Amino acid sequence: xxxxVLVLTVAMMVLPMPLLLVDLLIGFNLGFAVLLLMVxxxxxxxxxxxxxxxxxxxxxxxxxxxxITTTRLILTQANAGDIVRTFGEFVIAGSVLVGLVVxxxxxxxxxxxxxxxAERVAEVGARFILDALPGKQMAIDAELRNGDIxxxxxxxxxxRLEQESQLYGAMDGAMKFVKGDAIAGLVVIVVxxxxxxxxxxxxxxxxxVQAVREYAxxxxxxxxxxxxxxxxxxxxxxxVVTRVTGDSKLDLGRDIAGQLSADRRALRLAAIVLLAMGLxxxxxxxxxxxxxxxxxxxxxxxxxxxxxxxEDAAISRDGMGAAADVRAGAxxxxxxxxxxxxxxxxxxxxxxxxxxxxIAETQNLRTKIDESRASLANTLGILMPDVGIVFxxxxxxxxxxxxxxxxxxxxxxxxxxxxxxxxxxxxxxLAGIPAQTDGDAKSSGQIxxxxxxxxxxxxxxxxYQDCTDVVATRMRxxxxxxxxxxxxxxxxxxxxxxxxxxxxxxxxxxTRTTPVQRMADVLRRLVDEGVSVSNPRxxxxxxxxxxxxxxxxxxxxxxxxxxxxxxxxxxxxNAHRIVPAYLxxxxxxxxxxxxxxxxxxxPYLVLDDKVSEGLLDRVRxxxxxxxxxxxxPVILTSxxxxxxxxxxxxxxGLDIPVLSYQELAGDFTIQPIGTIGLAGSFGSDSAxxxxxxxxxxxxxxG
Length: 702
Known about the structure:
It comes from Bradyrhizobium valentinum. The chain has five domains: 2-117 and 165-249, no CATH class; 261-316; 331-478, FHIPEP family, domain 1 (Glutaredoxin); 487-563, FHIPEP family, domain 3 (Helicase, Ruva Protein, domain 3, Orthogonal Bundle); 576-702, FHIPEP family, domain 4 (Rossmann fold, 3-Layer(aba) Sandwich). Helix content is 62%, strand content 8%. It has 26 helices and 13 strands. Strand 11, helix 26 and strand 12 form a beta-alpha-beta unit. The chain is elongated and about 135 Å long.
């Protein structure tokens, strides 16, 4: 069909056409222009009408060929078909001057307003699309590296970018056809008028006035037949290039109607202004009243839709979790979280027995849990998840259970009528305050005191916790112990988004060298050992430096720990900036290093049973000698086996920090207080022989 149209276009330029065929072609030209305009209104994206530049070229050439045909008929036969004559008679309305003015107005509107504006929009759009193309391609590559999209989706997005750039570039050039078509229309009407008057007076012997009227009628009709489809084509092109789709999935009409009626206040104010204009003397009051009523009715419709949307939003907010119900103090709306959809349930949930309901309803428990979450977030540098609170009648009296991701991790006793002793029991005996250790309290070694003695405990300065404090303290311990579970790809991406404002270039470099899932794994490993990531710049700097060179996430974590050495040393140093440390002997390091086995799922430590027992015995003695969490000693070893030693101790229930020599900061003093070996006696608390220390570790003086 395209080939046939092009052949017909060339034929119209050189061959005479019968009047009936000319009328058919003119009607087709008008209908096709209307079709293009309707299509432009219903496309959801400019890319859905990507053939428009080619259509503009074909329709412009076809219309110009049709103008040549009608010009030949006007000059040779003084007749260009019924459509041309009817248009001329209708527009002229008995006056040639009126017809010329109408034609000039139509042409000026098309040329100066629509065609020129659409040309400028297409030009700027093409420039912006081409300028943004490298950045969009890099974003696609980054998402592909991070695993957010697969190869097929990446190819689809690249193809869409290529198509988009080609469309706007082609539209920039195609708008020159529309602009040139308007200029050609002005030239053709002048040529037809002069040529027609000359032919009529000189060749046909017509009087000058009759020649002017006859040929002006045909010329203006022909010009309008050409300019009206051209005007429609200009509007079509302008509609496509000015369309801003974004995430909208609506056609242009629905999009405009939705945005104009989004806020009913605007419609109501417009109705009031129209009503006020109707009161102006001389204005048609009835017209403005009708318009004001129409705008007011539209505001009512928009208000109904907005109310429905608000209700949907309220339902959505209500379904976010049961924690909001507790904060609002509305126990009758408390939902059973385990019956909610998995996406709605918070990762951490406290289940309370029925007699513990008052501590949740008074919001005191919620306040203390939020304080614990904020404290941990400040300490570890990560956001703690919200905690859901539900009631479970299956729990025994004064019992509570904590679940993390649907798995119970803690269950304990909390009596709302008693206080838990957090002090030396001897002080309780000296103060003469009776205590109880029955039931679960006796089996757990906890000592409980009736609440009537609270004033006596305060007067004696004896530490205690009420029921709310007991639950909140256990929750803090669970959150701290499971903090690494709350760091994933989503949280890591949110962290990078927050940091882009301050460290834009650094974030860009890190995402180029390190996938998001690897970053999330590094953060999980750091937080799992209690290393704070509250200084994300140092973490990102280390990832940017080592992310491309080190693919092993375990070793990458060790390099990040080395970058955080000042923070790590500060955590374990005393007030004099001294870090007490036990050193693993070189022979023991070699034994541990030789016991590492590489497998398909990664390396792991396989120690002989006798060696394991010897090592555990010595480390347990370190734990028994540590009295303060802040001043407790650390274990120092080489970087390549640090993680294996730490994992070995954790698996055997020994939570003692293990540092590598690369994590020792120069502005802190390391005080070796003993050595750990696999054979012989345990190192003394005095400084060991200098030969047993790795190079660079200097004992503290004094």
